Amino acid sequence: MSPRRAAALRDGEDRSLREHLIATAERMISEGGTAGLTVRGIAREAGVADGVLYNHFSDKEELLAHAMRAHVRSVERGLSPLPDPGTGEVAENLRAYITYGLALHHGILPAMAGLIGRPEVLARFAEANEPGEDWRDRLVGYLRAERALGRLAPDARVEAAAAMIVGVCHEAVLSLLFHGTAPEPDVDALAAAVLDGVGLRS
């Protein structure tokens, strides 16, 4: 272990310096958002020299993208588990997915607000995503699985249904961000509207 790494990590800490830097930036984002976050501030909080960050990341944007990804995962750990396909009632499960999506978007809004004018960070954030791990991907996967199980119509346009739900979640947080207030979406009505389009026909 290098002296620089030894000084930055606590005794017994089982993670790399790169992971330490991501965790430090994620904690700072969680506590104060992304606005005004600097390389110097992250380095100081992590206990390393400013230049050390560039030994592990190509630039500040890459570090922030990974830290934002870690922040999203942290918010998700505080939410209720999503239901599995084939369990419970489809309508109830869909409401759970919508409720989860709204809570997730509200949870990450303070951090995302500081990145509205930073498209390069948002692009890196999207690139850092593993296919299938985002809430939207899981929603689409859930709907596809229910269709395959015959609990939705065989010609159900699940991607369009998912886009509809994601759009409502985005509208809620963007209205709050730009107007300071947002109407609370009617989860039951949205789930019913989606199922009217993809439900089984009698």
TrEMBL record:
Matching Pfam families: TetR_N (PF00440)
Keywords tagged on the record: DNA-binding, Transcription, Transcription regulation
Start and end residues of each HTH tetR-type domain: 15-75
DNA-binding region as annotated in the record: 38-57
Domain of life: Bacteria
GO MF, one example: DNA-binding transcription factor activity
Signal peptide: none
ATP-binding as UniProt keyword: no
Keyword Signal annotated: no
Protein name, as recorded: AcrR family transcriptional regulator
